[in-house]
Structure formats: structure tokens, C-alpha cells
Design a protein that fits this description.
With 160 residues, the protein is mainly alpha-helical. It has two domains: 81 residues; 63 residues. Helix content is 92%, strand content 0%. The protein contains five helices and no strands. The protein is elongated and about 125 Å long.
Length: 160
């Protein structure tokens, strides 16, 4: 009986490391899978954050290129104007520089003249004030005048 018992214990003790290795291996593989999953999640988060950062960097770089291009274009236009003016009389240079302001002032003068004349005509003929105002300051007039004001006080001010 002792022989059978010692043989069985010897047999089991010889196989015990294998059984323990099996459970240890199973536990290790489970742990490695969890680590791999955590690393993958972390990489995905970093990649998403890195991609977003890279995308923002590219947007900033594109904006810088556009700003630099606009500045270079403006310099080229100014240089072109200077080159055209070389050798010309001062009055010609002044006349060239005054074209847009003269057109704007002419448009303003025309607007004021038409409004005053229209107001005087409507007043003399007892036209209702609302009807007179709708005729003098209609949508087309507002759009034209808004474009002129936006050009001189908006676009030009921001481009300097």
C-alpha cells in the first residue's frame, strides 16, 4: 500500500510543475492580452490626439501660407504701382492716386443731390413721408452705399 501511495505521490509530484505551469501560463496570457489591449487603447487615444494636433498644425501652416501670399501680392502690387509711376510727372501720379476717392466722392455727391432733390420734390407734392423714404433710400441704394462704405472703411483699413 505504501508503495502504491508513494508511487502515486511521486507521479503527481512529477506532474505538479506541469499543472502549475499550465495555470501560470493561462494567467500570463490573460495578463498579456489585457496589457496589449490597454496599450492599443492608449495608442488609439494618442493617435487621435496626435492626429488632431497635426491637423491643427496643418491648418495654421495653411493660414500662414495664405497670409504670406496675400502680403507678397500686396507688395508686388505696390511695387508695380511704383514702377508705373517712375518717370511720370507729379500731377499724373497724383491724378492716378485720386481716381478711386474722386469716384467715391462723386457717388456720394450724386446720392446727396438725388436725395435732396427727391425730398424737395416729394415735399412740394405732398407725398407721404414713408413712401418718399422708401423711394429715396431703397434696397439698391442701400446695397451700393454699403459696398462703398465697406470698401473704404472695411477692406482698406484691414489691409494696411
Amino acid at each position: 500500500m505504501l508503495t502504491i501511495l508513494s508511487t502515486l505521490i511521486s507521479f503527481l509530484s512529477g506532474g505538479l510543475p506541469r499543472i502549475l505551469d499550465f495555470f501560470q501560463d493561462k494567467s500570463d496570457k490573460k495578463h498579456e492580452l489585457e496589457l496589449a489591449q490597454m496599450q492599443m487603447d492608449q495608442q488609439m487615444k494618442l493617435q487621435a490626439a496626435g492626429f488632431a494636433s497635426q491637423e491643427r498644425i496643418e491648418d495654421i501652416h495653411t493660414e500662414q501660407i495664405q497670409i504670406q501670399t496675400a502680403a507678397d501680392e500686396r507688395k508686388a502690387l505696390y511695387q508695380h504701382d511704383i514702377e508705373i509711376g517712375k518717370g511720370a510727372a507729379q500731377w499724373v501720379i497724383n491724378l492716378r492716386a485720386s481716381v478711386r476717392p474722386v469716384i467715391t466722392l462723386g457717388l456720394f455727391g450724386l446720392l446727396v443731390f438725388i436725395d435732396i432733390a427727391g425730398f424737395a420734390y416729394a415735399w412740394a407734392h405732398d407725398v407721404d413721408f414713408k413712401l418718399m423714404l422708401d423711394q429715396l433710400w431703397d434696397d439698391d441704394t442701400q446695397q451700393i452705399w454699403a459696398s462703398v462704405i465697406a470698401f473704404w472703411f472695411g477692406t482698406q483699413a484691414f489691409k494696411k
